[in-house]
Design brief:
Layout lengths: L1 E3 L3 H5 L8 E5 L5 H11 L9 E6 L3 H5 L5 H14 L4 E6 L7 E4 L2 E5 L5 H6 L4 E4 L1 H5 L2 H8 L3 E3 L1 H12 L16 H9 L12
Parallel strand pairs: 2-3, 3-4
Antiparallel strand pairs: 1-7, 2-5, 4-8, 5-6, 6-7
Helix pairs in contact: 2-4
Length: 202
């Protein structure tokens, strides 16, 4: 176990030839975050991966603010499924998700960083890098936390993605449910319990 400042190199160090399970837990996954994940996937033997589990938030506001690139993530998942049809890919969501954890057989990164460029490149973040033997004994906690999330069915995922394509042209010009700027909207999201966020999928 060691204290680290998150960076792309630390994230990619979780991926390698022996990878069989990938767990990504991040409220926000930006376009850059999807690209980090794509690079990681390119470093593994994809036909050896048994389970790929993603925890995130599903919210149109996050998409409009550029916090999560659901469409790019969906494209990556489709690419993976095409290369490894038997892989179990599952998506779990919670509006209250705040944890950030990235885990494979090579260990885990647990800390303050979302899977975004800001989280792994520009923000002042802090995390713990655990080796796999340190992580294995804690997996029961993950199973317990999963009870507070909802698994997103294929149909619900497609419905959510389709809803993003129907946003009006002004969606990215004006912050939803606020009278301020995009900056104040994002700051609202960053604050505890922002009232303007609404459940999208159950």
């Amino acid at each position: 176990m060691r204290l680290i400042r998150p960076c792309k190199e630390e994230f990619l160090s979780l991926f390698g030839g022996g990878t069989k399970e990938i767990w990504i837990c991040s409220p926000w996954i930006s376009s850059e975050g999807v690209n980090y994940l794509r690079k990681g996937i390119q470093m593994v033997k994809i036909d050896k991966i048994n389970n790929f589990e993603i925890w995130l938030r599903l919210n149109q506001n996050d998409y409009e603010a550029g916090l999560t690139d659901y469409l790019n993530l969906s494209k990556l998942l489709a690419e993976i499924k095409k290369l490894a049809p038997s892989m179990n890919i599952s998506i779990w969501q919670s509006d209250n998700l705040h944890a950030k954890c990235y885990m494979t057989e090579r260990g885990a990164i647990i800390g303050s960083c979302n899977l975004t460029r800001a989280g792994f490149e520009t923000n002042v973040e802090l995390a713990m890098r655990l080796e796999i033997n340190e992580m294995l004994g804690q997996l029961s906690l993950r199973d317990n936390m999963r009870l507070d999330l909802h698994q997103v069915s294929t149909e619900a995922w497609e419905e959510f993605l389709n809803s993003l394509g129907k946003l009006p042209p002004t969606a990215f010009k004006n912050p939803p449910d606020t009278n301020g700027s995009w900056e104040s909207f994002v700051q609202g999201i960053l604050s505890e319990g922002p009232p303007h966020l609404k459940t999208q999928i159950r």
